Amino acid sequence: MSDQIQFIVEKLNQEPFRKNYNLITFDSLESTQLLQLLNDVLGEIDPKHAVDIREELPEQTAKRMLSLLGILKYKPPGSISDLSAFRQGLVTGSKPVIHPVLHWLLQRTNELKKRAYLARFLVKLEVPAEFLQDDTVADINKQYEELMEAFKNLHKECEQLKTSGLSTAEIRRDISAMEEEKDQLIKRVERLKKRVETVQNHQRMLEIARQLRLEKEREESLAQQKQEQKNQLFHAEQRLQRAQLQLKEMHHAVVDSKPESLMKKLEEEINFNSYLVSEKMPRELESKKNSAYFLQKVVAEPAMSQSDLNVLEIKINEVNAQMNQLIEKRMMKYEPIDSKFSMYRQQASIISRKKEAKAEELQAAKEEMASTERQMLQKTNQAHELEGSDVLKGDEFKHYVNKLRSKNTFYKKKRLEIAEITAEYGILQRTEELLKQRHEAIQQQLQAIEDKKGISGYSCTQEELERVSAVKSEMDEMKGRTLDNMSEMVKKLNAMVAEKKASLAPVIKELRQLRQNCQELTQECDEKKIQYDSCAAGLESNRSTLEQEVKGLLEECVQEESNYRYVNCVKRNLEIQLQRAKEEMKAYVSPDPQERRKAIREQYTRMILEQENLGKKLREKQKAVRESHGPNMKQIKMWQDFEQLMECKRECFLKQQNQTSIGQVIQEGGKDRLVL
């Protein structure tokens, strides 16, 4: 509780409340101040509730607060189980009620603001059914619901845009940066145009450059088409391999297996699928429908308080007790008849449960296997896209590892060279710094000498003239080199175009051959598929006829087996009864008294006599108890009266003893006064 109050005080001292409370001042707030504080927090969440509670009745305040808390989905803590008690505490401003509400509100203020904002537009107005009979009211209500759905969609889109990370400021910055880059590019293009216009045959060179760019784009598109063709060829080869593998597996299954094993597999699969379709799936569907129906029923009902839930729990317990009593009565009533079949019923229930568990395990295993196959195929495709080839295996993988090791040694060697170059670079950098320092010192000395001789700035002017002449010579040399470079570039471009055409010719030829192979493989695959479909159709027709025959034979076998078991059970019961009758007759006719005692008739006769004697004794005892009941009750009453009388005497004796002791004390006090 102390942590809760400390959290409330910290939140109230922050923005936007700024109450400047401490634990003592907050704990000493009166009920009215607590209610006003709670109202201020609710007003921060929903501005409609920012009112002064002194200007409205306590019932109105409680009703308004309860309605907002209901919209915000606040649930009272476990100690306040009754809603009326919570409402009474809210009206009177009770601390055990207000403090948890404040703690809950201040914990999630932003979330509750959003919920209160949405409640203004999404809390549906309930229109009575008799008003909806009017067409105008029904149309307006329909428009109201459509607008509510549109608001939901717009709010979701707005939240997605807020959380997507895009903002108008960032977009504006990106646009301004792109415009600046565009201006820079335009300026660079203009400068390059001015430079190129001074060169002879610049139009022809530009045309050749444009053709080179087009040829490069065409080369890229051809390379992309080649890669796509390779991917398609790879996927076609994969499909062909899978089809060949399936065909091979089917050939092996047909060659290695017998018709009996095939029929057995088909029967197992058909039994499993029929069990799923006829038993498991309908049962699951029915349970899902029942649960959905009950959930819809619960949603349609109005909100229930804790007292309503307690009443329902009590009713459920009573109904469960009645059901248990009825089940016990039924078991007691039908137990002698069903005693013979109880064992079989238990075994059947155990087998059905095991069957359901195994079916679920099998279905889960099939789903896991399918997902594993999909993942394997996906990983294979990803490896092919990343590496451009299949996954390495065996000797190829060893060769790849050896290649990696050689590259690793080469990398270590180069890294050592880089370290040496870095060290040398550091030494050279330090040497450069020292030389710069010396140059600056010499320049200062030279400047001092020039000032002393009266010719200051001579060295700078000489350096400037040398720099300008060097720049002019560099520009002249650059112009000559530019012309030479452009002529060489044209020659290189022509040579590269011819070389690319020559290099692409065998690739195009190879691509045509690959396309022809792909078409042949596709035709072969289609032919194999037609053969497979015809073979599968013939096997399917044979399987259906054999299934019908097997089904009839199985039903006949089951019927005969049940008849055989029934006859065996009847025969065994008759034999047991006949044996018991023979033993009873033998014991009853036997001259030996010990043997006759073992007979069931003698045992029941003896038990009847014992029960009659016991009943006679109990009746005599009952008679004696009835005769002595009246005098015994009278004696008990006399003893009770005697006990009351003795208790009264004891109280009188204690009172008299107290009075005598008080009188002696008074007499002694009077004697003392007389002596004084």
Topology (elements, then pairings):
Layout: H1 2-13, H2 23-27, H3 31-45, H4 58-71, H5 83-92, H6 95-107, H7 109-122, H8 129-132, H9 135-163, H10 168-197, H11 202-256, H12 259-300, H13 306-338, H14 342-387, H15 395-453, H16 458-589, H17 593-597, H18 600-675
Helix pairs in contact: 1-6, 3-6, 4-5, 11-16
Structure description:
The protein has 676 residues and is mainly α. Among the domains are: 1-123, Intraflagellar transport protein 81, N-terminal domain (Actin-binding Protein, T-fimbrin, domain 1, Orthogonal Bundle); 477-589; 593-623. The chain is 88% helix and 0% strand. It has helices spanning 2-13, 23-27, 31-45, 58-71, 83-92, 95-107, 109-122, 129-132, 135-163, 168-197, 202-256, 259-300, 306-338, 342-387, 395-453, 458-589, 593-597, 600-675. The radius of gyration is 53 Å and the shape is flat. It starts with a helix and ends with a helix. Its main location: cytoplasm. Belongs to the IFT81 family. Residues 3-126 form the IFT81 calponin homology domain.
Write a brief structural summary.
The protein is mainly alpha-helical and 676 residues long. The protein has helices spanning 2-13, 23-27, 31-45, 58-71, 83-92, 95-107, 109-122, 129-132, 135-163, 168-197, 202-256, 259-300, 306-338, 342-387, 395-453, 458-589, 593-597, 600-675. Among the domains are: 1-123, Actin-binding Protein, T-fimbrin, domain 1 (Orthogonal Bundle); 477-589; 593-623.
